[in-house]
Write a structure and sequence with these properties.
mainly alpha, Growth Hormone, Chain: A, 225 residues, 6 helices, 0% strand
């Protein structure tokens, strides 16, 4: 069951970090167009990106203990993130066009319009942020189940590789990808990367990890022999 080297998962998680920080960068550009100010957009994106990741981690801490295959759950989260990225540009254009045409004129006051714009902007990125927050606990717990002897090393390397990929991702999006692909092309490229990651991890995680109680039982049995 543990034939796949852990280094493969470390590399894949670096690519996940690469895509994740592309989203944070791209969302700031998109929401700046809607909110009208770069500082507002960056503040909202940072707050929801970090808050959504915290919510995603909390959900995993409460729900994932009994899941049989955490790496496949991770693959599903990556797949949904990728699909959301492919649809993001069209959803953003449709939502903001509808807001300008129908909602904002009917609100009347500036305060109400501002609150609505911030709420709509938040709804456009919060679900993906929650899913991004689920990736680290799912990947780390899945690897610990498969490689229990190196739990500390797995956590450290996952954190390092994901952070390294994230740093490269924000630089690549800001200095290369946006200029070459535009905003829609950049977010869609990140989405394709997420879908590719999902497919690879799904294939690598063919067998379920042993549940925590099973591992405890196995250790107890070996101690009695």
């Amino acid at each position: 069951m543990s034939r796949v080297p852990r280094s493969v998962f470390f590399l894949l998680f670096a690519l996940s970090g690469f895509a994740g920080l592309i989203y944070e960068s791209i969302w700031s550009h998109y929401l700046q167009l809607f909110l009208g100010h770069a500082a507002y957009a960056q503040t909202l994106v940072l707050a929801l990106f970090m808050g959504g990741m915290a919510i995603g981690s909390w959900i995993c801490s409460r729900r994932s203990g009994g899941w049989r295959n955490l790496l496949r759950a991770y693959a599903l989260a990556e797949a949904v993130i990728g699909l959301a990225a492919l649809a993001f540009h069209s959803a953003f254009v449709a939502a903001t066009d509808f807001a300008y045409a129908s909602i904002l004129p009917a609100l009347g006051g500036e305060l109400a319009a501002t609150l609505f714009k911030w709420a709509l902007a938040g709804l456009l990125i919060l679900p993906q942020s929650v899913l991004l927050g689920m990736t680290f606990p799912l990947m780390s717990a899945g690897l610990i189940r498969r490689y229990p002897a190196g739990a500390g090393e797995s956590l450290a390397m996952l954190y390092f590789t994901n952070s390294f990929g994230a740093a490269i991702g924000v630089l690549a999006s800001g200095f290369v990808m946006i200029e070459a692909l535009g905003l829609p092309g950049t977010v869609q490229a990140a989405g394709i990367l997420n879908l590719a990651l999902a497919a690879v991890v799904w294939l690598l995680a063919r067998e379920a990890e042993p549940a925590p109680q099973e591992r405890s039982g196995a250790r107890s049995a070996s101690g009695l022999q």
